[in-house]
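From the thread on structure requests for the teaching lab: each student submitted one protein with a one-line request. Submission from student K.M.:

"Model Sugar ABC transporter substrate-binding protein from Bifidobacterium lemurum, C-alpha cells only."
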Amino acid sequence: MKSSRKFIAAGLAVATMIGFAGCGSGETAQEENPTSIKIWHYEEDNGAQGIAWQKAMELFEEETGIKVEFEKKSFEQIRQNASQVLNSDDAPDVMEYNKGNATAGLLASQGLLTNLNDYVSQYGWDEKITGSLADTGKYNEKGIMGSGDWYGITNYGEDIVMYYNQDMFDQYGIEIPTTMDELEDAMQQFVDNGVTPLSEGVAEYPLQHLWWQLVLQKADDELIQAYEMYEGDVDWSDEAFTYATETIQDWVEKGYISQDSTGLKAEDAGQNFIKGSYPMFFSGTWWFGRFQTDMADTNWTFSLFPETEKVVGSSGNIWVIPENSTKKDAAAQFIDFTLSEEIQNLMGNSGGLPIAAEPDAITDEKTKELITSFNGVLENNALGFYPDWPTSTFYDELNASLQELVNGTADVETVLSQMEENYNKGVESAGVK
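Reply posted by the TA:
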C-alpha cells in the first residue's frame, strides 16, 4: 500500500508544479505544495473511527510529508456552527460532517462544499461506495440527497441497535428479548425489580432515534420517501407516527424510560449504560468500539430492534472539503487514506463498520457479528435513514417535542401537531417542494 500511495503523492506534486488546477477546486486559488492541512472531526479517541483516522493521519504525514493540524470538535459544535465557519477563513481543509438534506445538503446548496466528482473519478471511490451508502454523499442543486453531484465521502456504515447488559439480565433472570412482546416483558420485569430498563438521553439524539425506529416498524417505502426525499405528502396522523409517539408515552408512564432523561445528552446516556446503571441502550454502532474498551469486564451483547423491516441508519458521516479550502488536492488524498485497506481493516478490528475492509483480516468475533448484521441490513435494503434529516432545524425541534412528551407537558396529539408544523415550515422555507 505504501509504495502505491507514494506514487500517487509524487504524481500530485508534479501535477501541482506544472500548474494543474486541483480537481473540483472551483474558483478558490490553490496552494502549490502545501506543507500542512487542517482536519476536523468529532470522533472519540477510543472509538473505531477515532482510532482508524488517527492512524490515517500518521500515515498521511509519513508518506506525503504534509503535516496534519488536527482539531477535535464536538458534534454539536460542528452541527450548530458549520455554515458560519465554512464561510470564513477559519474553515478546515477537510472535516467530518453529518449527512442528510438538512446538513450536508444544505451546505452543498449554499456553495460551501467542494464538488468532489473529479476526485471520485480520480480515486475510484464510487467503486467502494455504492447503493444506499452512496445516497448520503450525493446532493442535487436543492440539497436533496440521493442524486446529483458528490459532495461527501463516507468510509464506514452505521445503524442503530439495541445494546444489552447481559450481566444485568442474568442477575434478574431475564432473557434477552427477540420480539416486541418479549422486549416489553423484559422491561416490565426490570421495573418490577426497581430498575429503569432504558438508558435515554432526550436532550440529544438517542430518544429521537428510538421514536423513528418505532415509526419504521409501521412505515412503508412510500412514507419514508415522502418524509426523507419529499416525494409526496407526509400524513402525520398515519398509524406509524401515532404508534411511535403513543409507545414512547406509554413506556414513560410504565417506567421503562425515566422522566429525568429529558435533560440528559447522548454521552450521558452512553456513560450510564457503560457504568451498568441501565440494562439497555438503543443507539448507534459508533458506540460499539467504545463499549469493547470501556466495558471489557462486562458481558454485553446487541441485536437489531425486534420485528421491523427497516432500521435507523445509513452510511457513516461523511468527509467534506470546504469550498474555501486552498489545499483541496491534499484533502482529497487524505480522504483516500481513510478508504485504504490498512485503515479499513484497523477500523473493523477496532469495532467499526468499514465499507472496504478485507473480511479475513477482521479477527474479533464480536466485530464480525456486527459486520455480518450490517451486511444483512444492506442486502435487505433495510436502511431507514434518520428522522432529523428533512429540515435544517428539525433536529432541535424533534428533541424539544419529545422532551415535552417525556416530561408530560404535552400529549401525543400536541406533539404530533408540533412535529407536523415544524416539518412543514422547514420544508417550505428550504424550497424543496
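TA comment: The longest strand covers residues 157-165. DSSP finds 18 helices and ten strands in the chain.
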